[in-house]
UniProtKB/TrEMBL annotation:
Transmembrane segments: none annotated. It comes from the Bacteria. It comes from Saccharopolyspora aridisoli. This is VOC family protein. Residues 4-135 form the VOC domain.
Length: 136
């Protein structure tokens, strides 16, 4: 089998703030910007890696989700416990410094973890946990 990860999905509740974080702060390319019925889906990804993307989507848009479930999703996003992603960089210190200078919400400064990686954690504007580890 030859399988790769094409896209991951993260909710966003403010598309302009999401663009400022992923495009302007992380340096990702905007691959798609699609509007429909007053909502907006953004597909972003790292330059030079066209086969890997993150789709930033409106939360709770699945027609099978109830209003109560949408409320839970909103509450979990506000607490930063709904979604997250793990990224990697060859220079964690420089990446962290850029995120801190860009006023990203810092969750954890660069730390040597007991499980063998050095990483840090921030939240994107929607509250998603973004862990970034130093590429080995």
């Amino acid at each position: 089998m030859d399988i790769s990860i094409n896209a991951s999905f993260l909710p966003q509740d403010d598309s302009e703030a999401a663009l400022a974080f992923y495009r302007d702060l992380l340096g990702f390319e905007v691959r798609k910007d699609v509007g429909y019925a007053g909502m907006r889906w953004l597909t972003v990804g790292p330059p030079g890696q066209p086969g890997t993307s993150i789709v930033l989507h409106p939360p709770g848009v699945d027609p099978g989700i109830t209003d109560d479930e949408r409320q839970v999703i909103s509450e979990m996003m506000a607490k930063g416990t709904y979604a997250g992603i793990l990224l990697a960089t060859p220079d964690l210190t420089a990446t962290f410094d850029a995120l801190q200078a860009g006023d990203a919400e810092i969750v954890q400064e660069p730390t040597d973890q007991p499980y063998g990686v050095r990483d840090c954690a921030v939240r994107d504007p929607a509250g998603n946990l973004i862990r970034i580890q130093e590429a080995q």
